[in-house]
Amino acid sequence: MDTWADDLLTLLEHLDIKDAMLVGHSTGGGEVTRFLSRHGSSRVSKAVLVSANPPCMLQKEDNPDGQDISHFDGIRAGIVANRAQIFTDIPTGPFFGYNLPGVTPSQGLIESWYQQAMMCGFKAAYDTVATWQDDYTEDLKKIDIPVLLLHGELDQIVPIKAAAPLAVKSLKKGTLKIYPGGAHALPNTAIDEVNEDLLKFLES
After folding, report:
1. Which residue of the set 26, 37, 51, 170 is catalytic?
2. Is CATH 3.40.50.1820 correct for 2-62+133-203?
């Protein structure tokens, strides 16, 4: 995660971007959080965390609603054993909420997700799982700019109980919006609402 945050700083400096609004979905929300904690907000005025993994997805004594380590170990084992299969199972099921009653799957989104996942380097995909176990609580406390958190009520990838409602408590200027019945992939499954929320926050 530190590497990703440092890469983002290099990009912002190279393009001389200032007064940016950073938007991070899922693991990207962890990257935005770590970036602001590690590099400050001199080039960033606002941030949005969408279905993001902070503060901590891992179950531990002070985070009883997190997921057991066996969950993350299982994903790693699946990547090693047959990554094509696990990269099929995730989008056809929990990522878009296609395993929920009354939800109509989009084959196009499933195939797009699969293609992107298979393009990722094997080691990079495997190592990414460890970033879901990190604790970002102290990172959140360092952020001094307005942060909007968007999270789906039925997110199965980053279950809400250990996510945004806890993260907002550690932010100095945090605002939380919960999407009733929302899945993890809000930018894909609630496109218009997410875009509207982003624009309102940008203009506020």
Report:
1. 26
2. yes
Task: Check 37, 151, 170, 184 and give the catalytic one.
Answer: 184
Is residue 71 part of the annotated active site? The answer reads no
**Residue pLDDT, tens place only, 32-63:** 999 999 999 999 999 999 999 999 999 999 99
Does the active-site annotation cover 41? no
Locate the domains of the chain by residue range. 2-62+133-203, 69-130
**pLDDT for residue 157:** 97
Whether the Cβ atoms of residue 47 and residue 198 lie closer than 8 Å to each other: no
- Which of 151, 155, 170, 197 is flagged as catalytic? 155
Residues 142, 150: Cα–Cα separation, whole Å: 20
Q: Is the pTM above the cut of 0.85?
A: yes
* Angle, vertex CA 58, rays to CA 159 and CA 38, nearest 5: 100
Residue range 127-160, pLDDT digits in tens: 999 999 999 999 999 999 999 999 999 999 999 9
Asked whether the beta carbons of 159 and 55 are under 8 A apart, the reply is: no
Is 45 considered catalytic here?
no
